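Re: that chain you flagged

S.,

Sorry for the slow reply, it's been a week of failed gels. I finally had a moment to sit down with the sequence you sent. For the record, here it is as I used it:
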Amino acid sequence: MPLISSLEALKLLPLQASMAASFIFFLTILLCFFHGGSSSEPWLNEEDDEVIVVQSRHDSQTRCDFSVGKWVYDQTYPLYDSNCPYLSTAVTCQKNGRPDSDYEKWKWKPQGCSIPRFDALGFLGRMRRKRIMLVGDSIMRNQWESLVCLVQGVIPTARKRVTYNGVSMAFHAMDFETSIEFSWAPLLVELKKGDDNKRILHLDQIEENAKYWRGVDILVFDSAHWWTHSDQWSSWDYLMEGNSVYKSMNPMVAYEKGLTTWAKWVDLNVDPRKTLVIFRSMSPRHNRENGWKCYNRRQPLAFFSHQHVPEQLLVVQGVLRRMRFPVYLQDITTMTALRRDGHPSVYRRAMDQKEKQHPKDFSSDCSHWCLPGVPDLWNEMLSALLKE
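Prediction finished late last night. Pasting the structure tokens below so you have them in one place:
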């Protein structure tokens, strides 16, 4: 199939305009990856490292920006229920006493196109003999549980299992020789204990985490929330870069330094002919008013009174733009910001109905997501990206 025709069939997934060249290159590598083709050296202009691409005059009509759209109510959702055995207790909001369930029935509808409904057998077929690993924090663990629950229902009990290896865990679909893995690395770079049990964040060290990422066919990264914890919730006591130690640093400066270390590792250690790399943008929190911004919310916001691009997203875009490796930015930030109804809130653990306690006596989680729920739609988007 000609390259441009194939790209049109993929609906030319979105990327920021300033990263469009790298994006077309990424899709070219994707086509070679899934069709078993080989690739010559990346088509780089040695003078300015810009990717040389062939663009279709129909690109503006065929490109679909998955990040722009609206939530539409769909009675055919969810795609699984909270009895999925791979869900953490903290995200099974129905089991934990949440009285409403409409948050499970919203589908993301991009402007001008659609995301195909998740097809478990189709997804597993495309992932046959491949490893897909989600790397990051507890929000990425949230997404991993969602993805495992989306596929596990079509696999006989005796033909699936979970294994553990250090900071990583893997769900195995044995008949497909496929593993869906999660690797804990909330800051991507290394956080170690130093003298006096102090936590030191090494902004230029990553190998202790990255050793788990080697040999994986599809890598999906996220890192944002741990960089912005403040005061008593700070993720570190000191920062270190080379031989220099810092008690404090602007969080976004530290974030850029850490992501740059990650980007250099990818550029030096990952072969784009063998591995696809995706960076998922930050999942917004709705925890103003001491965590009660998401309590008792029953439907998504329809729109924002004004658009706001988080600093973390700007930093990620800048780092990806400087990379030689074609990393795809999966932008879920705006679509997710509309879903303040989707958090566990007080239903993060089972509530004893016999107790005469007001819900506000319980701590409220406005960061993670109920499952089934919002991360299922991130995974539908991910499946669309990986679709032939």
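What I noticed first: Residues 3-386 form a domain with the Rossmann fold fold (CATH 3.40.50.1110).

Talk soon,
D.
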